Amino acid sequence: MIEQQNRMSIHQGSREQAIILKALLESFSIMVFEDSSLMSVFNPWGVLIGDVNSVKLKVKEEDYTKAKKIIDDFNAGLYSM
After folding, report:
1. What is the per-residue pLDDT for 40?
2. DSSP readout, 7-68?
3. For 7-54, what is each residue's pLDDT tens digit?
4. Of 9, 13, 18, 27, which sits 20 to 30 A from 51 (CA to CA)?
5. pTM for the complete prediction?
6. Residues ≥6 apart with Cβ < 8 Å to 67
7. Which residues, 6+ apart, have CB-to-CB distance to 71 below 8 Å?
């Protein structure tokens, strides 16, 4: 089983962008973990919710460099979906 501390954050953004990047990384046999937990803060006037659409993608530490290059290449337009 993969321990949480062996995962590194590779991307944080919209759900739509995360779906595309997750599919791209998985096509290169990189296991991707999604963290879309909502952070909320209680205050006297109600509940403030963090960025509802924000999704964080994480990869295993040993895959981080490869995943970062793939995402950088995608952002540079080298891959199309």
Report:
1. 47
2. EEEEEEEEHHHHHHHHHHHHHTT--EEEE-PPPEEEETTEEEE--TTEEEEEEEGGGHHHHH
3. 999 999 888 899 999 999 999 999 999 886 554 444 455 554 555 567
4. 27
5. 0.74
6. 10, 25, 28, 30, 32, 59
7. 10, 11, 21, 24, 25
CA-based Rg of the chain, rounded to a whole angstrom? 15
Tell me the pLDDT band of 80, cut-offs 50, 70 and 90: confident
68: CB partners within 8 A, 6+ apart? 10
Residues 23-45 as b or e (16 or more Cβ within 10 Å = b) = ebbeeeebebbeeeeeeeeeeee
Give CA–CA dist 45/60, Å, rounded: 40
